[in-house]
Design a protein that fits this description.
The structure is a single chain. The protein is α+β, with helices and mostly antiparallel strands and about 800 residues long. The chain has a domain of about 240 residues: Distorted Sandwich (Beta-galactosidase, Chain A, domain 5), CATH 2.70.98.50. The chain is built from 20 helices and 31 strands. The strands form seven sheets. It has a nine-stranded antiparallel beta sheet. A hairpin with a 2-residue loop joins strand 25 and strand 26. The chain is globular. The termini are far apart. The N terminus is likely disordered. Keywords: Signal.
Length: about 800
């Protein structure tokens, strides 16, 4: 019954979001020019010209939040020994986001890294008669469809492909031209841990060289790792089945497909599906149902139109255009990628999404990766596609509880630094810092959705258990420093070398946020929770943030003096905003400046830490935007393309990781609109070079939406909408002599007079379903040009000469 209630609650949650989005789009677009969506999104399409992509970083990608496709001309090697070097073959890789190994523990140890990691599925060889000599492809974002031509030595063939938006099915059509002929060949891949293979190889090399096997190579290779059963492939004209049973009957993956041949136009259409279940016998019925539906839709001619309908409704939920073609296109590619990678009923996003490629970190990481990923959709007003974090946390609460030792399970829960899709990862008696940060993302989802009941009924008990885990840690690891304060004896600032010690700022910030949030929910809903006194005592007596002349330290005995790509010590500023630019500007600017000076090695000091990487750039951009320094924010954003980002906006740090490009979209949001601390800040960090910017229906914490226009360097139009309920709004904007009016749901306009307070904020009471509009005198809303980018600089991304030219320009600027 409890599970049923959770499902109904989630369904109502999403219905509420959909209703709000429809209202917001209608209201904020009133009296401003309409957007030609197909034309605008078409500017953002990726293109591949001349050379075929040769790896996943260059490849076009399609997905529906669970299944994923990637197309490239792969070369055989260690990462994929099943590949071929034949010049007439393209590889169509298939993935499923929740497909991970499910091996049982050995000797009481879970060995999560290699026993529970993501697994490869396989790929289709698209084999042509002639060798591939070139490509002309376009990823049509508006319809989420790959189209184009493959040129060969004897002719060419057309391609068309989608991963269906509404159910787990994929489609790839080839149409031969000239003397060409094309076939599909299925190649399954072994269900074997890639990190284990890497360590086996490393160990073998060391042994051959007479060296000692140490470290992670020794640890991984010393664990038993029997092979999973061989893949069973059954080929039949009526439909093909590939079945991978996991080791010890701990799960099964079914890949099904059929090729439909049409001799009249010389086309062949591959229709397929993939299902996975940890329970034996459940995957086959599901894959058969999805195949049946897919084939029926193809036969009726509705397969593509039903798929396209979903995507055509998805994009207009909000709108962003800026007079910076590169970043506008980068932004919209993240909106496409995010909806391709996850959905409300999809997996919680790990570092790969649905596009498996061999990597050493094949699971969900909670020391930064998953948290940054789930900021992308919030301000973008695309809450439904990002609800997977909330829904999966709800679904696997029991596993989070059993992750802690038995004597803590009555009132605690926790998540490991790494875990698979089901969140199983026993962690011992440690603090729940990563879990609390994950729940901050849960809280953000509720805040943007304006769903106080969800926060009370579901977040509150989760956060209560997580904070109690930290309280239990304090009880069992007491430390008295003679000042009467509460201290943490030995916790960790993620990734900082030597970053374990007393009073770590990462732990302090997250603990304070959890206690304050629980007390807020308890007061708002009059819950009278018996733990409230303990939370208040913790807040009143917890040691202060550790600070020195350079700003925020790592911890009590650990200064920030080594290069560090992660901003774990700065969480009190961003994203928690316990320390804010309003109250603590000097401390925060000093801290961020110092972090980046040391991390970029501007003082020419040597150390062994990992320095600037993708999320260093995006985190810096967001923080400087919060400090109202848009030019510095953009300068760090422009470092991103030189830090492991590819021409398709995919990202790798030697291995696939997905969060940093997503957090670049978050940084753009932070430049355009911020809504922390119960206040709205409109265009607070727009760089001076973005003379023109326009957005519609961007979402704020509390559920209000904002639309705005900046033209020739001046903010000339703002509209704040208050759907569903009345709101008291506090906001800040830089507009010359604004004229204010309130518009009701019937379109009646009433002028109002607003003045800023001593801090420069406006305040207004907005009734339900009304809007506040601010304009510069003489502004003609009908004359506003919402699209700020230039037509001549369209379609920068993909494997083409335009991308290289733009990036070269960035290098010259540096």
């Amino acid at each position: 019954m409890k599970h049923l209630i959770q499902i109904v609650s989630s369904a109502l949650f999403l219905l509420t979001l959909s209703a709000c989005s429809a209202y917001e789009d209608a209201v904020s677009s009133a009296n401003t020019p309409p957007i030609d969506w197909p034309s605008f999104i078409g500017r953002q399409d990726m293109k591949w010209e001349n050379e075929a992509p040769t790896d996943w970083l260059q490849a076009p990608y399609l997905g529906n939040g669970m299944l994923g496709l990637m197309l490239f001309q792969e070369k055989a090697g260690f990462k994929n020994p099943e590949a071929t070097n034949d010049k007439n073959v393209l590889s169509l890789h298939v993935g499923r986001g929740d497909y991970n190994d499910n091996r049982p523990p050995v000797d009481g140890r879970d060995h999560t890294w290699i026993y529970r990691g993501r697994l490869p599925i396989g790929f289709y060889r698209i084999r042509s008669k002639g060798d591939v000599t070139g490509v002309d492809w376009r990823l049509d974002l508006w319809n989420a469809k790959l189209v184009g031509t493959v040129q060969t030595s004897v002719g060419s063939y057309q391609i068309e492909s989608v991963v269906h938006a509404e159910f787990d099915s994929f489609y790839f059509k080839v149409t031969a031209e000239g003397d060409e002929a094309v076939d599909f060949e299925w190649q399954p891949q072994e269900a074997h841990s890639y990190p284990r293979r890497v360590c086996d190889r490393n160990a073998a090399r060391k042994i051959a060289n007479g060296e000692e096997v140490t470290g992670i190579d020794k640890g991984f290779t010393s664990m038993p790792y029997p092979k999973a059963p061989e893949v069973e492939v059954s080929l039949n004209p009526n439909g093909n089945i590939s079945r991978q049973e996991l080791y010890a009957e701990s799960g099964e993956l079914i890949t099904a497909w059929k090729v439909i041949e049409d001799t009249t136009d010389r086309s062949k259409t591959l229709v397929g599906s993939i299902a996975f279940s940890q329970a034996m016998g459940e995957a086959l019925p599901q894959v058969k149902a999805d195949m049946r539906r897919g084939l029926q839709e193809v036969e009726k001619g509705t397969y593509l139109s039903n798929h396209e309908r979903w995507w055509n409704a998805y994009y207009p939920q909000s709108f962003v255009s800026i007079s910076d073609d590169f970043w506008e296109q980068f932004y919209w590619l993240q909106m496409y990628k995010f909806a391709s990678a996850t959905r409300s009923n999809g997996m919680m996003l790990d570092v790969m999404g649905p596009w498996y490629q061999p990597g050493f970190w094949p699971m969900i990481w909670t020391d930064l990766n998953v948290q940054l990923t789930y900021w992308t959709h919030l301000t973008a007003n695309r809450l439904e596609v990002g609800a997977s974090l909330v829904n999966k946390t709800d679904q696997y609460t029991h596993n989070l509880i059993t992750n802690v030792p038995e004597d803590w399970r009555e009132d605690c829960l926790n998540a490991g630094t790494i875990f698979p899709a089901d969140m199983v990862a026993p962690v011992g008696k440690s603090v729940a810092d990563h879990m609390i940060w994950l729940l901050h993302d849960y809280w953000l989802q509720c805040r943007y959705a304006d769903n106080a009941n969800k926060m009370r009924d579901d977040l509150f008990p989760l956060l209560k258990r997580a904070l109690n885990t930290n309280l239990r840690y304090i009880e069992e690891h007491p430390i008295d420093l003679g000042d009467g304060n509460i201290h943490f004896k030995n916790t960790w600032s993620p990734e900082y070398p030597g970053g374990r010690g007393v009073d770590i700022n990462y732990t302090i910030a997250l603990t304070k946020w959890a206690a304050e949030t629980l007390l807020d929910i308890n007061r708002e809903h009059q819950l009278n929770d018996p733990k409230a006194a303990a939370w208040q005592h913790l807040l009143d007596n917890l040691t202060d943030y550790q600070v020195d002349e350079t700003g925020l330290r790592i911890g009590r005995d650990i200064p920030f003096d080594k290069a560090h790509r992660h901003y774990s010590h700065l969480l009190a500023f961003y994203p928690l905003y316990d320390l804010t630019p309003d109250k603590d500007r000097d401390l925060l600017k000093r801290s961020v400046d110092h972090w980046l000076r040391i991390t970029q090695n501007l003082d020419n000091k040597k150390d062994t830490a990992r320095s600037v990487t993708g999320y260093t750039c995006t985190g810096a951009a967001s923080m400087y935007a919060s400090l109202n320094d848009g030019d510095t924010a953009l300068s760090y954003l422009r470092m991103l393309p030189f830090n492991n980002v590819s021409c398709t906006t995919m990202y790798a740090e030697g291995n696939p990781v997905i969060e940093s490009p997503f957090s670049a979209a978050t940084a753009i949001h932070d430049m355009l609109l911020q809504s922390w601390g119960d206040t709205i800040r409109i265009m607070p960090g727009v760089p001076s070079s973005w003379k023109d910017a326009h957005f519609r229906s961007l979402l704020c914490q509390g559920g209000a939406t904002v639309s705005a226009d900046r033209s020739e360097g001046q903010l000339i139009y703002v509209q704040i909408d208050s759907p569903k309920r009345a709101r008291q709004l506090t906001f800040k904007m830089e507009m010359l002599d604004p004229q204010f009016a309130i518009i009701d749901s019937g379109g009646i306009v009433q002028s109002v007079s607003l003045r800023t307070n001593a801090d420069g904020f406006y305040q207004v009471e907005l009734p339900a379903d009304t809007s506040l509009r601010a304009t510069v005198a003489g502004t003609d809303l009908a004359a506003i040009h919402p699209v700020k980018s230039s037509v001549k600089s369209a379609n920068i991304f993909g494997l083409n000469s335009r991308y290289e030219e733009v990036v070269k320009g960035f290098k010259k600027e540096r």
